[in-house]
Amino acid sequence: MKVFVFSVLLLGYPNFFCSALRGSNELTLDIDKFPDPIDIVTEKQNDLTIYKPYDPNALKNIVQGDKPIWFKKRGEKATKVVVYNADDAPSIVRVHFKAGDQDQMNIYYLQGDSWALKGTYDPDQPGSPLSGENPIPEREVPDLQLDITAAAAKGVQVNTFVSCNIPTKVFKVAPGAVIRSLAVGETAVWANEKENLKESKVYQPKGANESFIFTAVIDGGNGKNVTKFFKKEGAEVKELAKNEFEKMLKEFVDQEVLENAGQASGDL
Predict the structure, then answer these.
(1) How large is the average pLDDT for residues 82-101?
(2) What percentage of the chain reaches a pLDDT higher than 90?
(3) Residues whose CB is less than 8 angstroms from the CB of residue 101 and which lie 6 or more positions away in sequence, other chains included
(4) 44: helix, coil or strand?
């Protein structure tokens, strides 16, 4: 009977049972250590390490060894911590938290032997700080180059999917990373000492190993984005007007539709 009652309680109240298993309700996350999986879920994504506390109210401090990064203030609760690693060492930390009912995000960077706050942001609009922004010194975060023919780049999240039957690869620059040049292999496509690349999308039809079209979304400052359009044909890379790019993309889609229709009729 006791076993039966315990089983009913466990099945009926899993959250209560798991909470009872967890230790202190005042947690400190040290990004140099692997946290207790009972308290915090840890995910690895290329150069990113993501921490998610089971109980956001319990996370009181975030540190790197003896270096403080973030501490909880009244009415705040940290929901997610994202660490960007450069050369296998933490370089940028994003702390997602709720301040009352508002979702906010702090970005920190390593300055010398301590962590400094870059600014507080709306997670959905990381380009517009909610408070005064302290620019990251360039000597602390070196400018990086994105090569869209390479498998990965530091500070860049890569996603691949199929859109309208066209294989598409999206390179999204992580908040806080500084990428000021774009390349296709050894060919430089875009570079600017003051503007930052935010995203690049590559559209490449199936079987077209040497040909594709791609975009570059650039932060032009004051919350304004500028999109540039390019095509690669063999060894040549050329900038396109928007209407030329849209025409080529439509041709890619139409070609895929025709090929798929031909395959379908052949199967009948």
Answers:
(1) 87
(2) 25
(3) none
(4) strand
